[in-house]
Task: structure prediction
Amino acid sequence: MSKHSVSVTVNGTAHRSEVEARLLLVHYLRDELRLTGTHIGCDTTHCGACTVLLDGKPVKSCTLFAVQADGRSVSTVEGLELGGELHAVQKAFKEEHALQCGFCTPGMMMSAVALLERNPSPSELEIRQAISGNLCRCTGYVNIVKAIQHAAADMRATRHTPAYVPAQEPAQVSR
Amino acid sequence: MTMPHTSPEISGMGHSMKRKEDGRFIRGKGNFVDDVVLPDMLFMDIARSPFPHAKILKIDSSRALATPGVLAVITGRDLEKYNLHMMPTLMSDTQMVLPTDRVVYQSQEVAAVIATSRYAAADGVAAVDVEYDPLPPVVDPYKAIEKGSTLVRPDRKDTNHIWHWEAGDKAATDRVFSEADRTVSQHLYLPRIHVSSIETCGCVASYDKANEKLTVYMTTQAPHAVRTVVALVAGHVGLSEERIRIISPDIGGGFGGKVPVYPGYVIAIAVSFLLGKPVKWIEDRMENLQADSFARDYHIDAELAFKNDGTITGMRIKTLADHGCADAAANPSRFPAGLFSIATGSYDMAAAHIAVDAAYTNKPPGGVAYRCSFRVTEAVHTIERMADIAAHELNMDPAEFRLKNFIRPEQFPYQSATGWSYDSGNYKAALEMAMMKIGYWDLRREQEEKRARGELMGIGISSFTEAVGAGPSHTFDILGLKMFDSCEIRIHPTGKALARFGTKSQGQGHETTYAQIVAQELGIPAAHVQVEEGDTDTAPYGLGTYASRSTPTAGAAGAMAARKIRDKARKIAAYLLEASEDDLEWEPGKFHVRGSPDRAKTIQEIAFAAYTNHPQGMEAGLEATHYYDPPNLTFPFGSYIAVVDIDRGTGEVKVRRFVAVDDCGNVINPMIVDGQIHGGLTQGLAPALMEEIQYDEQGNIQGGSFMDYLLPTAMETPSWELDRTVTPSPHHPLGAKGVAESPTVGAPPAIANAVVDALWHLGVRHIDIPITPFKVWKILREAGVRD
Amino acid sequence: MIPSSFDYLAPATLGEAVNLLHEHAGDAKILAGGQSLIPMLKLRLAEPALLIDINRIPGLGYVDERDGSLRIGALARESDLETASVVRQRYQILNDTTAVIADPLVRNSATVCGNIAHGDPGNDHPATMLALEATFVAVGPRGERRIAARDFFLGLFSTALNEDEILEEIVVPRPTAPAAGAYLKLERKVGDYATAGVAVQLTLDASGGCARAGIGLTNVGAMAIEAVRAQDFLRNKPLDSPTIAQAAEIAAGEADPIEDRRGSADYKRDVVRVLTARAIRIAANRAAGANIATPLPFTYSPSQAALRS
Result:
């Protein structure tokens, strides 16, 4: 078993940890950093419950090792709220009833956030395509699509801070 | 029944209040079972059988025990010492917790590995060496019940036939059939499917030796029933019911799959009890799909009798139910086939007879609902397909056929030929609304034009009746526990409320809708009503959330408990206002003296007085508990119309439009009801077109991961178009009915009917779901249609 | 689902990676996008002793046109193809292909070269690369070698790549206008492997007929299949309906599928026929200048109620 020192910036905070090579990023976030908003729903890279942003791009953190995130930036659902202000996507998900059990919600929102960062005015089709790697079993997607449209309109109307914070040198060392 | 309208501040019934629970979920601060971490927690993982049927010759744990981090390997022999190797199912059958000598389905639990981490436990599982002697698997339920078939459960029976059950009047039905102008018959198969909530199942079992108390955090839809089951299974080792606390944390979707008690829970509890340490067990997706309870798996032979003018006179059904290796369905005990006998549906007919036989096979145990009220989906699919076949055979429009046969509004309460008493309905109104909304007759013209051009387009209707809200104690119980549900309300001195229920939300939004019920009845703003469920140490006893029963039972209990509080509040108000109780009038939030609206006391003032200035001789406080025993089920209904296009080349089916008109009586929160319908329709689309768990002839599961068990994404899911009619339930205190399962019940036959409608002119009268491109392609090519 | 233990090294240069791979040949796997490898590790279908992560090697993430060819570096992600303007302009078939690979999240990690090197008959790029007559550049301890796409795929999960070689670059010759392609895939849902997929790349002659055709088939054999007889048949033929239909029949005959949960062998062959005809039409129209977007799955098209609003 090989141990590796990694430094990962998660939601703007740098963490340095010793990890096993095989530790999946999702377990690193959930079990080591106790950021349990990122969920696990399948074994085969289909459900997207574990979606996080890696250097700003949405990826499935169950199909990525923590060592691969060394020196990189990870954004999770816990980082969406900034300075006590919910992200437009978070607000819209509540406003449009885009969640029921809430299990797929963090991953779904991360995909939505990434979409709106690169495409401020997505069509319905573009929204559906962007979330097609995230399974939801409760909502039938109707209100998720509406929420993303709603958030897009909000974000176009107001300036917003990007959810992605670039990787940093660890100022503080966790664990 | 109309309810008084409350202000937006109060947000009683009818308000689309935003959900109270969302705050934590959108922040990633939900508390799901895998988020629970306890000091010194150990991890459990399970080794499973690669064979569907085999003798276990030897389990060698030595390599596993030598794996770093592995502390113990538990086998059936270990549990047998404590008589914990077997457990009862909800249908009073038994199933193995861990096997002692034989496995009876592929992926059955064989040994549990306890380790200091998830990763070590997984390594341990890979190092458990088991020697098997494969036995012939029993896969086909028809062959299973033939004489001389290999026995799946020699410990239970000398046959694989589990039970036979009937409903309706056989003689009367046979008579109707012999006198009928016409009859149609059809074999239908409702395949094995799986609820696949995005969160799998799991638990953290924690036995505190010092306090002799077991706490189990568990993804269960029915925590109280689980507590009782655990006490019944493990009482003999000292786990008596007051020493057991089941906590359902946030649940990532249930849909019926989180009703049963699975072996993993029992093993984790046993290990924690023996070691005195918390044990976490979280299934992975393949375990969830391959070993947890399935739904459906009904082989149905149905017949419909009718007159030449299209009037239905009777229905006859024979069904073979494949229950796998144990009858572990989650049905009320008097209904081994669930509520399948609701199969006469929305139609008035003189006679019906339904017979169901159940078989053991070498497949996982189960027969849970997949978002439906105990086999109503199977029933609705049967009648709605048969109605379409009959209509087409008569060359009659399927809409007109339905309109002709609907139970009429004035016939309610309607006594069905199979013994149900429908509470209320107006089926014609719902279908006509759906037809208008979708432009039915225009679509029929479009279809005709397209057919002339060789294009394939179909229109399908489903006018379903659901039966939800189990149930009345005279008929409904699970393991003897009557299917009431409960609510306890406490009003705090400042007029805020805490309301606890015996149910458990898995996404239905109970924290919001229950608060709205209390708000409706007491005028306390819903924002000030905190709702709690799922902790057996604090919540009143209830049977849980499934079968769309929360609103019909616990919701009613909430209204009744609130009314008890209102009764006491009236006494306090009379005292405060120095008026006679009879002179007080209630409006949401306050009592005033009749004729003097200024002489009033708000519920908040009354609450304060209940703790500071209550009348002499009256108990202090403002609390009430109600256990609600519903007098009947509620019967929500609706009409759905699907329009499909079919690709002549590939056989792909596209649901172009889908209009759903639902009637669930009075609506508590329209936003939430619509959300439930969106989700339910998607879980109707999925089995109609995509989802199926099959077994090959050797009993190997096909579709045991999301590679082949196909859940629809946003791309496959159409944008649902909703509307509603409102026909209140006459017996529910709020006039409400359950709703969340109606769409899952109603959607599949609408889609199937649309596909068959598109292909009827090619000689097609039925296609079993899921209607895959391959199935459609075969039909097209056989009919000579080519792209 | 937890992988077994392995060692992990992240070399800084391609040379170093090749040396490591050579040193641990047979016991090491290259980790690039990881979207095929990591699920296999989690299911313990693969248990290599060492993972060599090439993601730290700079300069391999390119998608650009140089010396008359499109070049796709070892670390170019599927999503890089989606955003590269040169691909949209001249290699639309690659856009069609990448759009139906897995899902958008997977495409942010998955590499194009990994899709080729994995040798999975279900992967979509191999057929497209056959149609495009691409060349693969492999680097190993004995230096670089170039392998034509048609010589690369040898069988089920088997390629011409040696155990100690890394697929460094894909080279796609720049099509000489008027030329265009299309990739069509029948899948049961987003993220599924193809029931069948067909890649068609056409070069037109002055009269709008077929000067040259490249046709590749996905998931209808142990490996991606180049439909050579269909290609030959189309050469120097007018692209009229009977010709297209006949070419499609020929391509279907070149498929060698097996029955699985998607359907029977006959079905898959027929899907090849249907998709080939449709892909030829799209490619021909595109080559003639028509602006045809990446085809959408049949289950989702603008006629749906969703898009009426």
User: Anything to note?
Assistant: The radius of gyration of chain C is 19 Å.
